[in-house]
């Protein structure tokens, strides 16, 4: 207060100098374990952020000895001082598996200059909206099959419009979508019978995410006693094995086409394999990580979006109005058209604010000592970004538990602090798949709302979010898809 009036500046600076990590409120490891194991936060680590923010304020040391940051202002201050080669934090669990099996590292696990060089290759053909637009044809084909599948399922239901377990349907859509981009291969997830290998891969991802938390919080010696480690290793084997089969198949296909003098230039994988700046081992690891990162993220976001639209008919009507006004009913929209739709974009943005699929992120800031929120930190300080608590901060997002896409419209109203919701991260280490993810979500949401009015099924009730590394619904979502025709 005194500082803000410009009085006694020197003494303030002095005070600032004196505030260090030692002055921060601190959660002990025991308190953390107690909260996770006995107070019910094991599956709700995102809610623990909100609870601890109430107890300790905007910045504190959490039970894992990292500095938790829970406001948009602090997050902005921190992100603007990020390293040249940002480190997300301790990925030793993920790299441990790769070392064990002699695999390479992808963008999620690589660090330093090697990470930077890898991203330089991966970003091309993916990160710019112009790059992602190239995939709109491929994505629209997958969307068309998905809409057909939804139509088939609803018609086969007893009420003629019910689709059960919508989240699972979006999962298959997202997997089919990302695989068709990475490999230009259709996996067949949108037909009645899911191929056995694909199902195994789906189960492996789910198992990896659910065992990840157990492996992370229990000490190494418990690995032979508790079931998590074995499950964790088996699940990674399943993930890498599946990606390897797809890459090998594609390699064969490319060789065949080169022999027949056919064009092989357009595919992402071909581009990676022909790039001399990345080794084949790293291509395998990178494509596996892209595949992994590209499924649960978009599918859960789409599930939450439809859930909220079904519960907020006035929002859905507004979206339908935009959709039906800008593109005639019988036409498939282009990438350029959907990315110009403010309300469609706002619906996805608001969904990701309410349900940030990555509810917690981290950085280790290593290059130099620095200060945030008036505290001095030595280099190599680990930070936890409490994205869930930040995007539910009532001072930035009033009525933060209500779905209000209009908060994001540029129609003269004051815009929220952009760091209040950064679901794809920020800066050079931000999500490489962002543009592809957005395009996929816009295109499929557009087509669903163009064709159906989505209504809640009374048996579903309220969905709660639980944290399984990514934020997922606590139970199955069933929805009615009423034909608009
Ligand atoms: C709703 C969709 C998605 C969300 C919300 C999301 C969110 C994120 C976030 C928060 C990060 C960490 C960024 C940071 O630390 O600053 C990230 C990283 C990453 N994402 Fe996504 N993501 C989504 C979809 C995708 C898709 C479709 C792909 C693949 C095509 C993908 C691939 C990756 C990869 C490889 C990284 C690691 C980047 C690096 O460390 O260099 N993501 N994502």
Molecular structure report:
It comes from Fundulus heteroclitus (Killifish). GO terms for molecular function: heme binding; iron ion binding; monooxygenase activity; oxidoreductase activity, acting on paired donors, with incorporation or reduction of molecular oxygen. It is a single chain. This protein has 485 residues and is α+β, with helices and mostly antiparallel strands. It has a domain at 93-356 and 428-483: Cytochrome P450 (Cytochrome p450), CATH 1.10.630.10. Helix content is 51%, strand content 9%. The protein is built from 19 helices and 11 strands. It has helices at residues 9-18, 29-37, 45-56, 72-79, 92-101, 112-123, 129-133, 136-156, 166-183, 196-217, 228-259, 268-274, 280-293, 296-311, 313-326, 335-338, 342-354, 387-390, 434-451; strands at 59-61, 67-69, 162-163, 361-365, 370-372, 375-377, 381-385, 452-456, 465-468, 470-473, 479-483. The strands form 4 sheets. The protein has a 4-stranded mixed β-sheet, with no helix packed on it. Strand 9 (465-468) and strand 10 form a beta hairpin. Helix 11 (228-259) crosses helix 13 (280-293) and helix 14 crosses helix 17 (342-354). The protein is globular, with a radius of gyration of 23 Å. The protein starts with 8 loop residues before the first helix and ends with a strand. The model is unreliable at 1-8 (pLDDT under 50). Bound molecules: protoporphyrin IX containing FE. Protoporphyrin IX containing FE (HEM) binds at residues 88, 107-108, 119, 178, 289-290, 293-294, 297-298, 301, 352, 357-358, 361, 423-426, 429-433, 436-437.
